[in-house]
Structure formats: structure tokens, C-alpha cells
Specification:
The complex is a heterotrimer of chains A (about 230), B (about 300) and C (about 60).
Chain A (H helix, E strand, L loop, with lengths): L1 H22 L1 H21 L8 H30 L2 H7 L4 H31 L7 H4 L2 H23 L5 H29 L1 H35 L1
Helix pairs in contact in A: 1-5, 2-3, 2-5, 3-5, 3-7, 3-8, 5-7, 5-9, 7-8, 7-9, 8-9
Chain B lengths: L1 H28 L4 E5 L9 E10 L12 E6 L4 E9 L3 E6 L2 E6 L3 E14 L3 H31 L2 H33 L7 H21 L4 H16 L1 H11 L14 H43 L1
Antiparallel strand pairs in B: 1-7, 2-7, 3-4, 3-7, 4-5, 5-6
Helix pairs in contact in B: 1-7, 2-3, 2-5, 2-7, 3-4, 3-5, 3-7, 4-5, 4-6
Chain C lengths: L2 H7 L6 H46 L1
The chains are: A mainly alpha (about 230), B alpha+beta (about 300), C mainly alpha (about 60).
Chain lengths: ~230, ~300, ~60
């Protein structure tokens, strides 16, 4: 059974990735959206003057971009499934419901990570040029990006599956998503801030935030995994 | 149906009497605690005398805070001066003694003792606590019931549990709103600001948003079965915030006060407990009233379909 | 009322508008919500009585 569901999982993931490689729609829309967010940041910070340290707010700005971009992506990915009747077809096929959850969440995770990897250097180039950075603590960044994205795509997939069937799709997703994401966002910003500031203290802060995010991931992914069956069945 | 409203009415009357009693007890019987204490009566506009106060200071620079007080200064040569402190900084001290003004230049003190009075400022904001805390507790408890009914609904798919779950969430919304309203006013009274991004306030604000989001979600789903399932699933997810909000003040540093065992006594404790019981009764009454309304609507629908046939 | 309380009550209070506001909101919220629920309940049960009387009449005629 395990081998079978592993094959099903791979097949469903491949379907998402092949479709994406053909149209490049998700990456394009999410990436451009992230870029537009950078423009908005520049406008927002244009009056701040040169006295403040951009490293202090870099973590918050980064996760703000990620959270809004991910909402766009989540909404799109499930609207596609629904419009093309793909989800219904999957439900008719003899696939375990948890496999559907992991496949959808996995696909969303891959796209989100791709967009984050594209956004990160652009953000650094635009806002953090010439700042003192600690390379050894920056090396920790991928960890928090991965942990945060796992939570975002796991819970987000569950919520987006609900919100595509409502009349106010994207607004309902935002309303459900942002309050539920609050603990993860806070932990992720704390950890990222620690990694950016660096030094022994920064690394300590990083692991505190990392602990929060991992704890949140474990609890919320278990809950989402358990509840997804009811959502797709409804 | 009749028995439902009877239950609601009994709970309503009981809750009304108990909360009114607790209200009177909180204001007429329980005392007013001190909100810290201040050294000069002029600092605040409502104070009460707590008694004399005396403090020993070993460095001259700290004396700057006590201009206007009676002090006894002992220099390092052993000489002693007593009088009212008229000015103090790092370079010199000036005392108004009985025999005229004395200025000590470059003071090197053995010790200085400040004498004054201590005044308590009655903490009227604390009166909000008697009802703010019970209302907040009920909001947590009713939310727990809503999550319980959500689990029961997902297990049995019985529509009755969905109704109970939705009505519980409505009661939660009422109590969350009242907690927020009383809490914001208490924050202003105790901390001097209307809002502070402090762990308990933040997590409770998130809880409020989650309860609102629950109704947004329900109202935007057309299919009845689907609405029930989505509501149940979301309320279970949202319930995870309740233990976080409850325990966060005990886990990480927070300005929000926590009731400790033995922290309250006598009339205060009794008023508080009566308010808690009364609020539980009121919460139950509101829940039963709303359930009665839902059931009445169902029966009206049934009668209408019978008549249309 | 005990003497200490009387003395305290005679002092000027800066916090009283907030305390009064909190209790005002609390009681007003409760009373309005319960009152509206009771009113709806009354209207609905009157409506039900009329409907059930009509149902009974019709089933009596048949």
C-alpha cells in the first residue's frame, strides 16, 4: 500500500509540475507579484530617510511578501483544479484522500520555494546592498524558509480547498489564512531577523523562532492532514 | 420546545440574580486594592495615605529624585545634616536646615536617608476584572463546546450537532465581543493606553478574527452540507488558538495579570466566584434561547410545507 | 458600607468613566442581545401558533 500511495503521490506531483512547466503560469504570476511588492516597499520606505537600519525590518518585509504571494498562488492552484474538474476526477479515482492532500501541498510547497528563492536575491539587491551581513548565520536562512513554507503550503492547501468553493474566494482565503498563520509568521520573522542580524545572539534568536515554527508545523499539519478528508469529501 | 425555553428562563433569571449580586458585591462589599504606590500626593489626583516611608540612599546622584523631601545626610567625615532637600545634582546638594541653608559641594556621602509619606492610589480599574475575566472564561468554554460539537458532527454527520455547533459559535462571538470591549477599557484604565501588542491581547485579537472568519466562511458557502462541514473543520482549526491564548501569559513574559492561587481573598474572591457562576448561567441561557429560536424556525418551516401541500 | 470604603469613595476618581463604560457596555450588550432574542422568540411562537392552528383546521376538514 505504501509503495502504491508513493507512486500515486509522485504521479500527482508530476502532473502539477508538468502543467506548470508547460504554462509557467504560477511561477510567473507569483514572481511578478513579489516584484510588485518590492516596488510598494520602496514607496513605503521612501520617506524613512537613511538613518534607519534596513536589516531591522528586512525579515518582516520578506515574510510579508511571501505570505501575500503564497495566498495568490494557493488560490490560483486550487481554482485551476476546480475549473478543470480535476479534483472531482481525483476523488472518483481510487486514490487515498491523504495522498491528495500531500500531493497538492507538495506542489504548492515547490512553487512557493521557487518563488522565495527568486525573491530573496532581488530583495537583498534592492534593500540590503552594502549592509554588514554575517555569512555563517545567513546560511541558516534556508532552514526557516523551508519550515515556514511547509506550514504555509500545508495549512494553506486545506484552507484554499475550502475557499475555492465559496462565493468570495480570495477574500475568504485571506480571512481564514492570515489569523491562522499568525503564530507561524511571528516565529518565521523572529528567526529570519536573527539570521540576518547574525552573531551568537542572532543565532540564539533564530533557533527560538525556528522552534516555534516547527512546533506550529507539526500541530497544524497533523490537524490539516486529519481534516482534509472531510473537506474534499464535502 | 417548551422545556427548552423553561430551561433558558430559569438560567436567565438565575444568571441575572447572581451577576447582579456579584456586581453589588464587587462595588459595595469588596475593597479597592492599591494600584502601586506613590511618594507624593500631588503625583495623582486620587490617593490615600498608606503610612510613612523611609529609604536609604548611598550615592549622591540618586538624591535628585527626592527634591522637596526631608532628608538626613551623613557625610564621610561623620557630620550629619537634617533638613528639606532643595536641590541636588552630582556637584552639590542644598539642604534647608533649621539653622539656615547648607550647601555641600562635591558631596561624598556615607549615607543619606529620605523620609516621606507613602500614598496608595485606589485602583478602580480593578473593578472591571470581576466581570471581564468571567466573560473571557465563558468565551473559551463555549468555544470548547463548539469544537466538541464540530468533532461530533464530523463523526456522525448529524445535522443537530451542526446546529448546536453554530449556535455555540454565535454565543462565543457575543462573549468575545464583550471581553474585547471590557478589556480595552481596562487596558486604558490600568496601562494608560487603549491597545498594546502584548501576547495575551494579540492572541485574543487573533481569536476574535478567527470567530469572525468562521461566520464569513459559513455565509459564503451555498450548499448546506458543505457549509456545515467547512464550519466544523474551521472551528476545530481555530480552537487551537484557545489554549495558546489561555496559557501564553503563563509561558512568556507578559504585562497581562494572571490570577494566582490565594491572590484574592474574602469579599473580592466571593464576588468573583459569584460573577463566574452567574456568567456561566447567562451563557447557558443565551445558548438555550438561541437553540429555542432555531427549533421554532424549523417547526414553522415544517408547518408551512404542510400547508402548501 | 465600611468607613475605609466611604473615604475612598469620596476621593476624586480618574478611572471611573472607564469603569462605568465597561459595565455600561457589558450590561447594555447583554440586555440588548437577550431582549432581541426574547422578542424574536415571542414573534416566532405567535407565528407558529397561527400556522399550527391552520394545520389543525385543515386536517380536521379532510
Amino acid at each position: 500500500m505504501a509503495g502504491l500511495s508513493g507512486r500515486q503521490l509522485r504521479a500527482m506531483l508530476r502532473k502539477d509540475i508538468v502543467m506548470e512547466l508547460r504554462t509557467k503560469e504560477m511561477i510567473m504570476s507569483m514572481g511578478l507579484y513579489a516584484l510588485l511588492t518590492m516596488v510598494v516597499y520602496f514607496v513605503a520606505l521612501s520617506q524613512a530617510g537613511s538613518s534607519f537600519d534596513p536589516r531591522d525590518i528586512a525579515a518582516g518585509l520578506l515574510w510579508l511578501a511571501f505570505i501575500f504571494t503564497s495566498m495568490l498562488g494557493l488560490n490560483r492552484s486550487l481554482v485551476h483544479e476546480k475549473d478543470q474538474g480535476c479534483l472531482e476526477a481525483l476523488l472518483l479515482s481510487p486514490v487515498d484522500r491523504p495522498v491528495i492532500f500531500f500531493a497538492k501541498a507538495g506542489g504548492n510547497l515547490i512553487f512557493l520555494l521557487a518563488v522565495e528563492l527568486l525573491t530573496l536575491p532581488v530583495f537583498g539587491f534592492l534593500f540590503l546592498q552594502g549592509e554588514q551581513m554575517d555569512a555563517s548565520s545567513l546560511a541558516l536562512l534556508p532552514l526557516i524558509l523551508l519550515a515556514g513554507s511547509v506550514g504555509i503550503s500545508g495549512v494553506g492547501t486545506l484552507l484554499a480547498t475550502m475557499s475555492v468553493n465559496t462565493s468570495g474566494k480570495d477574500f475568504v482565503l485571506a480571512m481564514l489564512f492570515i489569523p491562522l498563520m499568525y503564530p507561524l509568521l511571528l516565529g518565521a520573522v523572529i528567526a529570519t531577523g536573527g539570521a540576518i542580524v547574525g552573531g551568537a545572539e542572532g543565532v540564539g534568536v533564530f533557533w527560538t523562532g525556528m522552534g516555534w515554527v516547527v512546533g506550529y508545523d507539526v500541530i497544524m499539519l497533523l490537524a490539516s492532514y486529519g481534516l482534509y478528508e472531510f473537506i474534499v469529501g464535502a | 420546545m417548551k422545556s427548552l425555553t423553561t430551561k433558558a428562563m430559569i438560567a436567565l433569571v438565575l444568571g441575572g440574580v447572581l451577576t447582579l449580586g456579584a456586581f453589588l458585591g464587587a462595588f459595595l462589599w469588596a475593597g479597592v486594592p492599591d494600584f502601586g504606590f506613590v511618594r507624593t500626593a500631588e503625583q495623582v489626583d486620587s490617593v490615600r495615605y498608606r503610612g510613612p516611608f523611609e529609604q536609604t540612599i548611598d550615592e549622591a546622584r540618586y538624591l535628585g529624585n527626592y527634591v522637596g523631601y526631608r532628608v538626613e545626610v551623613v557625610g564621610d567625615g561623620g557630620q550629619t545634616f537634617r533638613g528639606e532637600l532643595t536641590s541636588a545634582d552630582e556637584d552639590s546638594l542644598t539642604l534647608e536646615t533649621d539653622s539656615g541653608a547648607v550647601t555641600i559641594v562635591a558631596p561624598a556621602l556615607e549615607s543619606a536617608t529620605v523620609f516621606g509619606s507613602e500614598y496608595g492610589r485606589p485602583d478602580w480599574g480593578q473593578k472591571i476584572f470581576y466581570f471581564h475575566v468571567p466573560v473571557a472564561e465563558i468565551s473559551f468554554i463555549v468555544f470548547a463546546f463548539a469544537a466538541f460539537y464540530a468533532v461530533r458532527f464530523l463523526m456522525t454527520r448529524n445535522r443537530e450537532y451542526d446546529t448546536k455547533q453554530r449556535v455555540s459559535m454565535e454565543v462565543t462571538l457575543v462573549f468575545v465581543g464583550l471581553t474585547m470591549a471590557t478589556g480595552i477599557l481596562w487596558t486604558k484604565a490600568a496601562w494608560g493606553v487603549w491597545w498594546d501588542w502584548e501576547p495575551r491581547l494579540t492572541t485574543y485579537f487573533i481569536l476574535t478574527l478567527l470567530v469572525v472568519a468562521y461566520f464569513v466562511l459559513r455565509n459564503s458557502v451555498e450548499d448546506e452540507e458543505r457549509r456545515a462541514v467547512y464550519g466544523a473543520v474551521f472551528s476545530i482549526l481555530a480552537f487551537i488558538d484557545v489554549p495558546i491564548s489561555f496559557f501564553i501569559t503563563r509561558l512568556i513574559p507578559s504585562n497581562h495579570p494572571v490570577i494566582e492561587r490565594g491572590g484574592l481573598e474574602g469579599p473580592m474572591l466571593i464576588s468573583f466566584i459569584v460573577a463566574q457562576i452567574g456568567m456561566i448561567a447567562l451563557g447557558y441561557a443565551i445558548y438555550q434561547l438561541r437553540m429555542g429560536e432555531v427549533q421554532l424556525r424549523d417547526r414553522i418551516e415544517q408547518a408551512k410545507t404542510l400547508l402548501e401541500r | 458600607m465600611n468607613p475605609t470604603l466611604e473615604e475612598v469613595y469620596s476621593l476624586v476618581l480618574t478611572q471611573w468613566p472607564l469603569v462605568a463604560g465597561a459595565y455600561g457596555l457589558l450590561w447594555a450588550g447583554m440586555v440588548v442581545y437577550v431582549g432581541m432574542a426574547l422578542k424574536r422568540l415571542g414573534a416566532l411562537s405567535r407565528q407558529l401558533e397561527v400556522l399550527e392552528a391552520a394545520v389543525a383546521r385543515r386536517s380536521g376538514n379532510e
